[in-house]
Write a structure and sequence with these properties.
By secondary structure, this protein is of the alpha/beta class. Helix content is 42%, strand content 17%. The protein is built from 15 helices and 14 strands. The chain has helices at 17-31, 74-83, 98-109, 124-127, 131-145, 157-167, 208-216, 219-223, 239-248, 263-272, 287-294, 309-312, 323-334, 338-355, 358-374; strands at residues 2-7, 35-41, 55-57, 60-65, 89-93, 114-117, 150-154, 173-175, 195-199, 227-231, 255-259, 276-278, 299-302, 316-319. The chain has an eight-stranded mixed sheet with strand order 3-4-2-1-5-6-7-8, with helices on both faces. It has a three-stranded parallel sheet with strand order 9-10-11, sandwiched between helices. Strand 13 (299-302), helix 12 and strand 14 (316-319) form a beta-alpha-beta unit. Helix 1 packs across helix 15.
């Protein structure tokens, strides 16, 4: 079995969640003696990899190519196209990334099965943005690319429903959560000041305005020594609006913006946090939840994310994301005794080791690829 992964950015790039998700998946497959080829641009990895050269790695045969225009990286598209004949299956990411769309057409013309990870693209909240571009693409996929040899990948049952609503109930969908190679647990240090943590890009869909509003109305937070630390890229210029909001609500000194954080620094940041918070209006998954749990730090996640298990397993809270509900959820965490809190931390670490470790769950992907290869043109619900 030989899987081709054309992807816009790939580890060591940290330009997006799929950069790591596909790296972990490819590494897990290679460990099971499955052939993997990855073709990516060098965006975000320019100083860490040699560009334009094939490399044999523990995540497959890999090449990183320079691209002047990331949305239309011609060298990357041409290189991936040349690999299609030699592969058994093409795994694409993001419905609205032009190379994925073009390579889907080529793969289907060459009668290669395609599995296409949607990465939350079909969530109604996500579709509010750039409707004029996304509408025609969805029409083309629905009418020409969503049947036959195409299987879509969803990370939750909710995302599966979104796929069926756009492409039809007979469209084949594989529901598989994101698995990852879990980082080593680092020793937790006593943070001063203690803090709540958000990690992720700064964008309106992440509902950070609601989180700041929730903290401003929480007497327990205001009267405590706690602060909120926000770690993430500000590619959309959203930070200024959040800073202004914190100022208007009188909590500027308790909201700290850290910018982009990665590697050992990020793991320590997770480990030392009291709780992580993911208040997003919508998420198809949320790798940051796994990263936090892996360091034993429980999570408050919004009900726009597929993380009900946090509440069920007492490893966090699954909350509505309006300011009042978030505020009440935060105050619930402040009411935990030290013994109760330590139980939350132990359960957090246990759940992620069992349910989201790529090396313990890679058979799920193996079985999926094998089923697709045995049934390349069969659709079911």
């Amino acid at each position: 079995m030989h899987i081709l992964f054309p992807i816009g950015t790939l580890y060591p790039s940290q330009q997006g969640g799929p950069s790591n998700t596909i790296y972990w998946l490819a590494k897990g497959l290679v460990a099971k003696s499955i052939s993997v080829t990855c073709v990516s641009t060098s965006l975000g990895a320019e100083h860490a990899v040699e560009t334009g050269k094939w490399m044999d790695t523990d995540y497959g045969r890999v090449i990183y190519l320079k691209a002047r225009f990331h949305q239309l990286p011609l060298r990357m598209i041409a290189c991936a196209a040349r690999q299609i004949n030699a592969c058994d299956c093409v795994h694409l990411n993001s419905l609205f990334y032009p190379p994925s769309f073009l390579l889907a057409i080529l793969a289907i013309l060459k009668k290669k099965p395609v599995i296409w990870s949607c990465r939350g693209n079909l969530d109604p909240e996500a579709l509010r943005y750039s409707k004029w571009k996304k509408g025609p693409v969805l029409w083309l996929i629905r009418n020409f690319l969503s049947g036959g040899r195409t299987t879509f990948h969803a990370t939750s049952e909710t995302e599966k429903k979104h796929i069926h609503s756009h492409f039809g109930g007979n469209t084949r969908v594989a529901v598989i959560p994101n698995y990852m190679e879990l980082p080593e647990a680092v020793e937790r240090k006593q943070a001063e000041p203690p803090y709540l943590l958000y990690v992720g890009r700064l964008h309106p869909v992440k509902a950070l305005d609601r989180l700041i509003g929730a903290l401003a109305r929480s007497r327990a937070f205001i009267d405590s020594g706690f602060v909120l630390k926000i770690a993430g890229d500000d590619r959309h210029g959203y930070r200024k609006a959040l800073e202004e909001l914190a100022g208007q609500l009188g909590i500027s000194e308790k909201v700290h913006f850290l910018g982009h954080v990665e590697g050992a620094e990020k793991q320590q940041l997770y480990a030392d946090a009291y709780f992580s918070i993911l208040p997003s209006h919508t998420e198809n998954f949320g790798n940051v939840v796994i990263e936090s749990l892996a360091q034993g730090t429980p999570v408050i996640a919004s009900r726009g994310t597929p993380w009900e298990v946090l509440e069920n397993k007492k490893a966090g809270i699954w909350s509505q994301n309006d300011p009042l509900s978030l505020s009440n959820s935060i105050e619930r965490t402040f009411c935990l005794s030290e013994a109760e809190y330590q139980q939350y931390r132990r359960r957090s670490h246990s759940i992620v080791q069992k349910c989201f470790n790529i090396h313990k769950n890679i058979s799920v992907w193996q079985d999926t690829f094998q089923f697709i290869l045995r049934n390349p043109g069969f659709n079911d619900s």
